[in-house]
Design brief:
Layout (H helix, E strand, L loop, with lengths): L18 H4 L3 E3 L5 E10 L6 E8 L8 E6 L4 E3 L4 E3 L4 H5 L28
Parallel strand pairs: 1-6
Antiparallel strand pairs: 1-2, 2-3, 3-4, 5-6
Length: about 120
């Protein structure tokens, strides 16, 4: 097990970041209002590319929260806010299709995958 001297050190000088440092990172709308946090990243097994980030918000202590899969390309990291920004309004996210998470912490797929909703924004 690798032990870090100070786990709170920002990855400012690094081009890469560990996925466990992304989980829990806040997400802000176009007006700098916090709308949720990154729950997880969904990575394509064969290519190793991040397909989408799962944004969660709502609920209480994780119960009843909504999972919104967002294409990774829609998120931009903002160093000043220490979080990811979307060029969307809170209402755009809230009105989008959402998913629930299964026991393996994966979003449940629906007949029409919720992440397809964002194709028009790309």
């Amino acid at each position: 097990m690798m032990v870090l001297a100070d786990d709170n050190i920002a990855d400012v000088g690094h081009r890469l970041i560990s996925s466990n440092r992304i989980e829990g990172t806040p997400v802000f709308d176009r007006y700098a209002k916090k709308i949720g946090a990154i729950h997880s990243l969904m990575i394509e097994k064969e290519s190793g590319q991040v397909a989408y980030a799962v944004l969660t918000f709502g609920g209480f202590l994780g119960v009843g929260s909504r999972a919104y899969p967002l294409p990774w390309s829609m998120l931009t990291y903002d160093r000043d806010q220490h979080g990811y920004c979307l060029d969307l309004r809170y209402q755009d996210i809230e009105e989008a299709p959402y998913m629930t998470l299964d026991r393996a912490d994966r979003p449940h797929e629906t007949e029409e995958p919720a992440y397809r909703h964002w194709d028009a924004y790309l």
